[in-house]
Amino acid sequence: MPTSSRKNTPPTFGPLVPLPGSERPAPAATKSSLANSNESINVTIRLRRRQSINTLVNQSAAVAQPLNRSDYARQYGASPADMRLVVAYAAANGLTVVLKSTARRTVLVRGTVAQLSKAFGVTLNIYRLADGSTVRGRKGPVMVPDNLVASIEGVFGLDNRPQARAHFQIYNPGDAQGIANPRAVAASFTPPQLAKLYNYPTDRTGKGQTIAIIELGGGFRQADITAYFKSIGLKAPSVKAVLVDGGKNAPSNANGADGEVMLDIEVAGGIAPGANIVVYFAPNTDQGFLDAITTALHDARNKPSVISISWGSAEKSWTPQALNSFNQAFQSAAALGVTICAAAGDTGSDDSVGDKLAHVDFPASSPFVLACGGTKLLTTTNGTAISTETVWHESNTSATGGGISDVFDKPDYQAKASVPPSVNDGKRVGRGVPDVAAVADPATGYVVRVDGQNLVIGGTSAVAPLMAGLVALINEQRSQPVGFIHPKIYATPTVFRDVTQGDNITVTNSKGYSATTGWDACTGLGVADGQKLASLLTTVA
C-alpha cells in the first residue's frame, strides 16, 4: 500500500509496473503521428470490489433477494480507501477528477495526452484506418504504480479505436452479397404480431418498468417514434436519452447506426409499450461501452430492470481487462435483479474474424448475459400460426452467431445442457452461446421506421430488445425483477420451443455448429413461449 510518514502527508507511489490484462496490440491501421501532447482526454479508472460478490451471485442459482442500489454500493462498490488513493495518484500527476462513483467503482479523470501518457506509462499514437478516419491507439500494457496494481481493475480511454459492431441487417432483396440474399421476403412482422405468435402475456404492458438500451452511435427522432407506434396501433412509450462520455443522440440516415437505435426502441416498445425506455448513448470504444453499461446499471433515477445490448464483437478483439470489467458489471446486474439481454452476432460461427476458426461474440458470451441467437420464421398463409422455424443462415455474412467461448468456462447452469467441445480443438468445453433465440433473418424480419422510411430489418440485435420487452412484461406481472434467469430456464427447458434444423457454419473450413434436439450452439434452448416463461419466472423462490 502507498505509505506516508504523517497523516496529512500525501501518499507516495512506487515504480510503474504493467497492469495485468491491459495489454493490447496496435490498431490494424497505419501509424501517422504521435498524438497531440496538449489534447485533453478523459480516462476511466475502474477499481476492485470492496469484497467478493461470489457468495451472493454465482452460476448455480438465481439471486433470491436482489439488493437495492444503495445497499449494493455500500457492500460491493469500491472501497473509500482505494478511491482516495487513486484520486491522490491523479492529483500527483496533475489530472482532474471529473467523476467518482463508488457503485460503478469508477474514477473518471481528465488530463492532457502528455500527462496521461506519463501517469500510465504509455505512448499514444494516431492511426489512420482503411476508411480514412483516424483513431488514437496504443500497444502493450498500461502501467500503474506497483502499490496500486491490486486496487485497479482496468484503465480505459487512453485508446479510442472502435470496439463493437451493431448486429442489425436491413433487408435488401437485391443484395447478392448476402444480407438476406436476393430472395423475396417470406414474411415481415411487427412486434405485436410476434408477441401473438410467440404467445407473450396479453394482460401486461410493462407498466412501471424501465428498459435500458445501450447505443454506441446513431440516434432517434421523436417524430419517427410517434408515427411508428401510431401505425401499429399502440400508444408510443416514453423514450429519453442519457448521454455518457460525450455520446450524443445524433440521428443521421437510415443506413447508419440509426437503424440499430430505432430497431431497438420500436421492438422493445412494441412488446412493452407501457414501459419507460431510456437510451444510453456513448462513443463506440471499450471505455464508452463499459461506462454506458455501468451508468445504466447504477442509474438510481431511472432504475432499469432490464438492459438490451445489440452491439458486440468477437472475444479475441477485447483486452482481458475489458472482458473482466464487463463481466463483473454483468455479475453486479444479477445482484441488483437486472436482466442483461445481448445479441449473439450476425455472421455465424466466423463472427467477422476471418482466421479460419470459430468465434463467439462478446458481451453475449458472458455467463451473466442472456445471449440471444436468431431464427428464420415462416408462418401459415394467414399469418396467425408458426409454420416452421429454423436456424437463421442465409449466407456467410447473414447468419446467427453462436458457439463455445474461448474465455469463459462452462457455467454451472449449463452442466446438463450437452454443450459440445469447441470445434476449434475438439477439447475445450466452455460457455455455450446462445441461451435463447427468436426471429432474426432479415428476409423474415421486423417492420420498423427509421428516419422517415419504413424498412424491414433483422439481425440478432432485434432479439435482444424483443427479449427485453418480454422480461419487462414478466417483471410487471411479478412485481419484482426476475434478474438472472439462467439457472431457472436451464432447469426447465420445456418453456422453450426447440429449434432442430439448420446450422451457423460460416468458417471457410466448415467450422461451426448445427441445430440438434435440446440446447445447441445456434439457437440455445430455443424460442421462448412467453406465457410459459412468465409462469416459470413469476413463481418466486
UniProtKB/TrEMBL annotation:
Peptidase S53 domain location: 188-540
Coiled coil region boundaries: none
Assigned keywords, A-Z: Calcium, Hydrolase, Metal-binding, Protease, Serine protease, Zymogen
GO molecular function list: metal ion binding; serine-type endopeptidase activity; tripeptidyl-peptidase activity
Chain segments carrying region Disordered: 1-35
Transmembrane region(s): none
Cofactor(s) the record lists: Ca(2+)
GO biological process, one term: proteolysis
Domain of life: Bacteria
UniProt feature, compositional bias: Polar residues: 1-11
Gene3D superfamilies in alphabetical order: Peptidase S8/S53 domain (3.40.50.200)
Family, as annotated: Belongs to the peptidase S8 family.
Name used for this protein in its record: S8/S53 family peptidase
Species of origin: Spirosoma rhododendri
